[in-house]
Amino acid sequence: MDLLNSTIGQIKPLYEEKVKEAMSRLDNLAKPIGSLGRLEDIAARMAGITGKVHNDIKKKNVIVMCADNGVVDEGVSACPQNITAILTDNATRNIMGISILSNFAKSDVTVVDIGVKADFKNPNIINRKIAYGTKNMMKGPAMSRDEAIKAIEVGIEIVDNLVDKGYDLLGTGELGIGNTATSAAVLSVLSGIDSDIVVGKGAGLTQEQYENKKKVVKKSIEINKPNKDDVIDVISKVGGFDIAGLCGCFLAAAKNRIPIVIDGFISSAAALCAYKLNPLSREYMFPSHLSAEPGATIMMKELGLEPMLNLKMRLGEGSGCPLAFNIIEAALEIINKMGTFEDAMINNDFLVDIR
Questions:
Q1: The pLDDT of residue 250
Q2: CATH code, 19
Q3: Tens digits of per-residue pLDDT, 12-68?
């Protein structure tokens, strides 16, 4: 708890004077004011994060938190639970979506077992297992309060270590069968919106399975009665280890003044938890894409953020982050290398009189 409280307390606002300085430079580039839209907003916010108008990204990394969820016992997923372990192992083998897209964006991937219901001999998986999956939230709290705090602190430690290694742009991903159910539950409680509205079909449920999933999420909230004003209580009762770990990632990125990208629905739930713990953490978050889950738009509204892309993606894994990395780096290229009006002025000696 000391690490969590310390991290929350160290998060500071953006350097607003650097945001203004960056916007002034952007307004003086050889283009109509504001004509590069959100690229300009990104470049200015990056200045506020780092305290420098000119920034270069040196090392990128997508953190993939992997965990199982006991609520799978209630039939909320079309996939068997052992798929989590298979995908976790494969995430280190350069064959999955996150691997291919990260390679394309020249980004590394950090795979963390924070609660998978399996043991791994894979040296490329970081073992920070809290337990072999959460408990079934339909029968009681998904985890203890201490476990929730421990999982959040795992995320903080992972980010702190990556920052020490020189990473200066991070992304967030997850692997865990059943985690759209837990994410919907977390969103429903924190937003006060009926769970039926935010629960989606996830990975290909039939209509009958979908109706069951909505009932399970609603019943889990009714049974556990999580306190919406206590984020840790919400995570512990209806969340997952992956959500908790990613929540810690967002908090630690803000503490370290490092930009961090949100992937889809699950990492958005984690981002919302971090925002509720310290609203300043939102200033360091960049949503990558609008997930196809029905609660995704509500999640963004709760965060007060707007995704960069809408590609109808719903893969998870952090797959939206490498795409956003490219956009962020493009924004930095603009502010760093584009000429000003003064640079672009043509000497009168070279003008041809066509009158």
A1: 99
A2: 1.10.1610.10
A3: 999 999 999 999 999 999 999 999 999 999 999 999 999 999 999 999 999 999 999
Q: Are residues 15 and 115 in the same domain?
A: no
Residue 317 is among the residues annotated as catalytic for this protein: yes
Ranges of beta strands (E only) in 116-155 are 125-127
d(CA 149, CA 1): 6
DSSP state of 307: -
Domain of residue 195, residue span: 60-326
- CB contact at 8 A, 264 and 316: yes
Query: Model-level pTM?
Result: 0.96
| Tokens standing for residue 64 | 């993939």
- Sign of the Cα torsion 192, 194, 197, 203 reads positive
Residue 354 lies in a domain: no
Residue of 211, 306, 317, 333 marked catalytic: 317
Domain co-membership, 30 together with 68 = no
What the block records as the tokens of 129 is 């297992």
Strand (E) positions, the chain?
60-67, 108-115, 125-127, 169-175, 260-262, 285-287
Q: Which candidate, 60, 176, 80, places its Cα nearest to that of 129?
A: 176
279 φ/ψ sector (left φ>0, alpha ψ -120 to 50, else beta):
alpha
